[in-house]
Please model this.
Amino acid sequence: MRNILVTYKTNEKEKEFYKNFFQDQVISFFDDDTETDKKEKKLLESEVIISWNPTRELEMFNKSLFSNFHLIQLLSAGYDHLQFDMFPNKCLIAANQGAYATPMAEHAVAMILSLAKKLRLYHNRMAEGKFEQMKSFTRQIKGATLGIIGFGSIGKQVAKLMRGFDVKIMALNTSGKTTENVDFIGRLNDLDYLLIHSDFVVISIPLSDETEGLIGKRELELMKNDAILINVARGPIIKEKDLYEHLKSHPDFSAGIDTWWIEPFKFGQFKINYPFFELPNLLGSPHNSSIVENIMIEGARKASENVKRFLNNEEIKGIVKRT
Model:
């Protein structure tokens, strides 16, 4: 039997799920204890950690308590919030790959449709008493080109949903290859080509040294004047100042932003450095693209399945490369 410790705050339904899933293992929960010495004992005994943000959840403890960690399984699909040097080099860290792809893809498509049809703009005009039917132009989706930067689980789900609108699909991934039905597949060095030819661009690539600041002034100016840019990945992939200035100077260009540069999960607060919400061509959401009913249990299920693979000496999904 192996010791598994869940370090994030869980409700009774989540606890019951973990207990049923890991019936043959020793499963414990950090939030069952208030005394520090009991938590320290659990840390020393545990080989597998299931966590949302281990950097913040474990920051008060001495790193020597982590010596027996063999796997940290994240509930989150992203991992840019981790402080890798907190944990032993032997310890594997796995992201919750693809756990939230379906609702996130739905959210991205909803943002595309809302911005293309200018729903918020015309709603606000009607609220002012303006009924301007023949002046209220929207965009047709059919025949447009969709560019997807990051063709993993989320990107593939976006493509699947958008195919119903008869769009052309261009995608970028690390290999430049895919078995999916797309009109173009390339790597990041094909970014300019994708940006130039796309009507809609969805960013669903992980944040890394390579992708931080990937979209800046030069890249934005390559895009069509009336392009729609959607980010459901991580805020810093786009340069904040450059996006704000581009939106302000290009009124026909629009952006749907679900992930921001300074968010509570990583920084303890939400902050923007420019007045994005004064712009009519910006649609924002509070990083809730994955938040649907029962998503915590679904996320826990995906994470637990990966832990089970580890326990069975099978190939683990989503192993994070330490930086």
The chain has a mean pLDDT of 95. The radius of gyration is 22 Å. The longest strand covers residues 145-149.
